User: Fold these one by one.
Assistant:
Number 1:
Amino acid sequence: MKVIEYEEKYAEDVKNLLEELQNYILSIDPYHFNILMDDYKEKIFEKDMEEVRKNHGKIYLAQDQTNIVGLIMGVIREPEIDFDYERQKNMGEVLELIVTNQTRSKGIGSALLNKMEEYFKSQNCHTINIDVFGYNEIGKNFYFKNGYHTRMMTVSKKIQD
């Protein structure tokens, strides 16, 4: 397995991975709020690619001998002052980290995360944020194992069917 930088020729592989992640989220969403529209992978691909282009982003892919088996997308959020805190340095944000179901638990996710962390360090980021779906215990455990911790949390309660 090797980690390579994204090229246009891998667009369909990326779209398929994005759809695989959404299907996984659908399978663990007890509220069934998440959906998979017919054009989901096209729309999410466009949205993510725009974020990467506008925000000094990078996409890295994990490739085995013949297939793309994982991806990570990250962007850099520039310093800002909000009404309740001041961030004086760049912040890295991982938009997507996906490893195909068939190749999980083989170090691919860690290799991709390490590559993105190297990029963020080279861009003088001091922090990395990653949003994780609350019911994604596998994802949360992966990030905790890699030194991340919960800083913010959204809590939800369904009050009507």
Number 2:
Amino acid sequence: MTIIEYEDKYLEDVKDLLVELEEYILTIDEDELDQLHPDYREKMALFDLKDVKDYAGKCYLAIENDKAIGLIMGTIPPYDENDYLDYKCPRRGRITELIVTSKIRSNGVGQALMNKMEDYFKSVGCEYIIVDVFAYNQNGINFYDKQGYHPRMHTEIKKIK
């Protein structure tokens, strides 16, 4: 397995991986709010890759036998001018997507992708990395905990109708 920066020839693999991630989220969404829109496969990867380009990010792929078996995307989003009113606003990277195909999880691919993205964020002066993890994704939470991440915010939800 090798880790490379995104290349257009792997776009279909990226689409497949993002669909696999969304399908997994659907299986664990106890609120039943997520969906796999008919346009998701064709639009989401392009949307994510545009964010990577627009916000000084990177997309790295884990490649095996000329196929992407995992991916990580990260950006360096700007702060809003109002953020500075109550926050120090250190330069931070944001991991927006991380998926390793289910066939090979727990073999170090996710760790290798994380290391690559963390090295990139360090190289451009980021002081922190943030990642949003779906609350019902206990596997993801455990993975990030093992990487040294910890919760900073907690979102509550209540169905009222």
Number 3:
Amino acid sequence: MTYIIRSLFTVALLVLIDYYAFQAWKTFTRNHEQYRLVFWVVSGLAYAMLIASLILVLNGTRNAHVFHYTMTIMLVLYVPKIFVCFWMFGEDIWRFFEGAWMSLSGQREAGESFIKGRRRFVSQLALGTAALPFLSILYGVWKGKYRFQVIEKTLEFDDLPEAFDGFVVAQISDLHTGSFDSKDDVLRGLNLINQANPDVVLFTGDLVNNEAKEMHGWESVYRTVKAKVGKFSVLGNHDYGDYVPWGSAEEKRANFQSVVDAHEAMDFQLLRNEAVELKRGNDALYIAGVENWGKPPFPQYGDLDAAIERIPKEGFTLLMSHDPSHFDEQIKHHNKHIHVTYSGHTHGMQFGVEIPGWIKWSPVKFRYAKWAGLYTENNRHLYVNRGFGHIGFLGRVGIWPEITVMTLKRKSTSA
């Protein structure tokens, strides 16, 4: 019942947005009734798709493609309309005070309406402003989702073992394989990892959207990733199949096992609350991985203590944990010093504005304090990867898919 009430509220809100946005369209298209009809036909088709998606969910039908396409269409249509509504609402405030002033000052003639008609130039301005997010979102769907960026970072440590000075870590996260529609574009992104010639590649979870069958035909694509020492991975919240209905508990377990097996098929060593030791001569570096651990409503399958229990107290440790909230909740104050934590999960909401050295903003910041890039607290580092893939909205606007290349350096002891 709660789901139905929320769905009805959503549809009602969209109708209200449409009604308000239509005021600008109607003013702009005076004497062109056919264009007004186009507005409601397009909106009606969007409503039909949204309602069909809601019905599928109510019937327990798993259809991720319908959900993703619906979400994308709604964003393409309604984010620009929200921009229009701001202008229309602002004009209404002006019109109200203008009418009140004319009434109080006696300037309003008898029989004249209290509120004057809408001004065409305001509607033109509103629609012109809405064109920017409209075109940006279209670009995000067409090109932005595969506009891979390589972000390079260098971190220095007093206690990095000498043999690992210059050690290169490449990180990817949130593949969400079921959302990809172009193997050539994905291969182009993965090749950027190989060009960096990393010592290790870390994949920090969300291999699929929900189901193991998304991986069919993709194992060989991911096997093209190369690393000099090894490739390691962990599970993300989407890998457990918790977000779709299953016919039985056994069906869900079988799906999960297939997701686990897929990591081996793509030549990644999956770390499930465990660690591996990398040796160079007498020096060692440790890579640990925990299963997903997030603040509710996200699951907490991870066991940090189990993951690092075999690591010596002074061991140099790199940790993979899918959800960055784990860092604040358990990692940064843990009695074992964890030097770098690698996370993903947020995707930077696939929408925002980033201009290096000036601005980094996304709506996801209201949910996650640490949502993209490097953070340092208590002499421990967290790096939040913006994600390689996408989900829900089949695109990216301003927050581009990321490959992180991090070089670990030993601080010079010379004066």
